[in-house]
Design goal:
The complex is a heterodimer of chains A (497) and B (188). Chain A has 497 residues and is mainly beta. Helices cover 7% and strands 46% of the residues of chain A. Classes of the chains: A mainly beta (497), B alpha/beta (188). Chains A and B meet through strand 2, strand 3, strand 4 and strand 7 of A and helix 1, strand 4, strand 5 and strand 6 of B.
Chain lengths: 497, 188
């Protein structure tokens, strides 16, 4: 008893010795981000030059806003190590009046909520409880963040920062994000380590592991329906084929029950940064390799009845590799800045070797942006991009309006799993115009008011968001359009605050 | 040196640009003793502001006809760290007898959050100008500048550097207002 008392007393004394003395109450603050574009499109597009950010975020992203409210319960004080703590709450979404089809606040989500505390228990450690999203950085021309972990996780983390070392360790639960109303706990430990061995060089690694345990009796836990055939499942014909194979049965009750299992997935990230010498402001290289978390179940309807198929083992071999690099160059000091970026992605799904999908594709692109400073606040911007996307399981894109007749070996195939008439999409974009930057020079200085023109060429027909009627049957009242060049004007703003 | 085809654009942009107005000038030759400092968190002593920000502050003072006498923070670090209120630091600066006027710029930069790919910092600045012989004339301005850094390795110095344009704008306005008030007070 006395020994226990001494141990407790010693621990309390240790805590007391580490605990700072006083702290001051703080203040509220709002941070945020917003972008909005008006993009008249006389070719029938819906407001973006191309399909997605692989061709550069410029003119390919839609309006968006984010607000983060912060309240410093205990303000951080300079020149001391008092405890501090802050509360953060973020809402974000893309529903903006007159810049999209819907201005409802229902389009916004409470994406982040967390509390941070520092100088508590351990020096140089920041504790965080709540959502844990963290990343090493951003590819600014793409708005991609390959080196990101805990995006889907709520839990707790501790970040140690001292000198050239930044170590983050955390754990939490990703079940709500990944499974929504079909929640099941997905335990997610992980961490990152970033070091700066030299003034001009940084290295970082990290990763997370997601484990969803087997829970017998819980319909939201991972299960497998025995004997599922991938092609039948893909076609939505599992029940039909099951009954066809057993003509003596006129009931579905013989359909096998799901078998409980566990599921796991993971993500590994890497980062190399260097710069601060010569004309190179900084170069970020990010890499990530992720095994996606398996799906739980899908629903199939046969003869008016819904059937649930548990597909953990049909979806547990989906892997995503991404590599991205961005270099910022001060090409002509105070006159011209250059940013060059490249991105490579490879998605593989070892379960699916028969049909094109987002999980079986390879893509790569490069984006080059030049910004010339006519004056401190008036700039000329030019950007070009080239991209290639290839489906690894057959055709996935339509080069021509009548490609439906060519989807398998040049013949119409009503049972074909391919789509369109080519497995590769090429996209080239050019954008130019003027930028007003009240805060002065800088490719990424914001706020920016931009007046831009964009041109896209793609081998895919109408490769942009549109409302064209694509079928070619005799009841198509609108006809088909063959178009590979796309023009967009844009008046837009972007700001962080 | 700009390419010839850009000349009309540059000329148009320059011609259309609004010119700064309301810049005041100090009466007669005058020297401002200037100290600008950054108070880090979780550290023991203050440091100097980045040179680029110091250049901006010196420039705005010179635009108003002050001669600038810099008090190096390195030499004064211990004294200024020991004195942690604006009043104490201003008194210390006046006691250095470096000029007829004193300008003190104190700053901190604190990391807030990651938002939309950027690292958001808040730079808090207290700028003070006074007649060295009459510190009761001091004018202080406190303002906060949110900045959004791109790189994870960028810390408080980069944040203050990124806030340089706004810091210059704020202090310029403050000095103009203060000079205008001083001149009005000295006018019979």
């Amino acid at each position: 008893m006395a020994r226990t008392g001494r141990l407790v007393g010693g621990a309390l004394a240790l805590l007391a010795s580490m605990a700072p003395t006083t702290a001051l109450a703080g203040r509220a603050d709002v941070a945020g981000y917003m972008r909005l574009g008006m993009r008249p499109d006389f070719q029938g597009g819906s407001g973006t030059l191309g399909y997605w950010n692989l061709y550069g975020r410029l003119l390919n992203e839609r309006s968006y806003a984010a607000l983060e409210f912060r309240y410093d319960v205990l303000e951080r004080q300079p020149l001391n190590r008092d405890p501090w703590t802050s509360l953060h709450f973020r809402v974000e979404g893309g529903n903006i009046a007159n810049a999209g089809p819907d201005a409802s606040l229902a389009g916004f989500r409470a994406s982040q909520l967390f509390a941070r505390a520092g100088n508590v228990l351990l020096p140089d450690v920041t504790w965080q409880v709540g959502t844990l999203d963290t990343y090493f950085g951003d590819l600014g021309l793409y708005d991609f963040r390959p080196a990101q972990i805990f995006f889907e996780t709520v839990g707790a983390s501790a970040r140690y920062e001292k000198g050239p070392v930044d170590l983050l360790v955390g754990f939490g639960d990703s079940g709500w994000f990944l499974k929504g109303n079909n929640y099941n706990t997905i335990f997610t430990p992980g961490g990152t380590l970033r070091v700066r061995p030299l003034k001009h060089l940084e290295l970082g690694v990290g990763g997370m592991y997601r484990f969803e345990p087997q829970v017998d009796g819980n319909r939201n836990a991972p299960h497998d329906t025995p004997g599922l055939d991938y092609e039948d499942w893909l076609r939505g014909e599992v029940i039909q084929q099951f009954l066809a194979a057993q003509p003596n049965l006129n009931t579905i009750e013989a359909f096998p029950n799901p078998v409980a299992t566990s599921a796991q997935s993971w993500k590994a990230i890497g980062y190399v940064g260097f710069g601060g010498f010569g004309p190179i402001r900084w170069n970020n290289f990010f890499a990530s390799l992720e095994r996606l978390h398996p799906q739980s179940f899908t629903t199939e309807t046969f003869e008016g009845q819904d059937y649930t198929l548990y597909v953990t083992s049909l979806t547990d071999e989906r892997t995503v590799l991404t590599l991205g690099d961005e270099i910022q160059i001060e090409a002509w000091p105070n006159h011209l800045d250059v940013v060059l970026s490249g991105f490579y992605g490879r998605h593989t799904d070892a379960d699916n070797v028969i049909a094109p999908s987002d999980h079986n594709r390879t893509y790569m692109s490069t984006v080059l942006r030049l910004q010339y400073y006519l004056t401190d606040t008036v700039h000329w911007l030019g950007e070009g991009s080239a991209a290639q996307e290839r489906s690894d399981n057959g055709n996935a894109y339509r080069e021509h309006a009548d490609s439906i007749f060519q989807n398998t070996a040049g013949r119409a195939d009503a049972r074909g799993l391919e789509f369109g008439d080519t497995d590769t999409r090429y996209t080239f974009q050019g954008k130019t115009g003027f930028v007003l930057n009240p805060l002065g020079p800088g490719v990424f200085t914001r706020p920016s008011l931009r007046f831009l023109y964009g041109l896209q060429y793609s081998n895919q027909n109408n490769a942009f968001g549109n409302s064209f009627v694509e079928n070619i049957d005799q009841y198509n009242d609108f006809g088909n359009v063959e178009r590979h060049l796309h023009h967009v004007l844009s008046l837009e703003m972007e700001a962080w605050f | 040196m700009r390419p010839r085809f850009l000349a009309p654009l540059v000329a148009l942009a320059v011609a259309c640009a609004p010119k700064p107005s309301g810049v005041q000038q100090v009466a007669g030759p005058a020297t401002a003793a200037v100290v600008t400092l950054l108070s880090p968190f979780d550290a023991e002593s203050i440091t100097a502001l980045p040179q680029r920000v110091n250049d901006r502050i010196d420039g705005l003072l010179q635009d108003r006809k002050f001669s600038v006498a810099r008090v190096p923070v390195g030499d004064a670090s211990a004294a200024l760290t020991a004195r942690q209120t604006t009043e104490q630091r201003l008194r210390w600066l006046a006691d250095q007898d470096q000029g007829e006027f004193v300008v003190l710029v104190e700053s901190t930069a604190v990391y807030n959050t990651q938002i939309e790919g950027r690292f958001r910092w808040s730079v808090e600045v207290v700028s003070t100008i006074a007649d060295a012989d009459e510190l009761s004339s001091a004018s202080s301005r406190r303002f906060t500048v949110p900045v959004h850094l791109q790189f994870v390795h960028e810390k408080d110095e980069a944040a203050v550097r990124a806030a340089g344009v706004v810091i210059e704008r704020q202090i310029s306005r403050q000095v103009d207002q203060w000079l205008r008030g001083q001149q009005a007070a000295n006018t019979p």
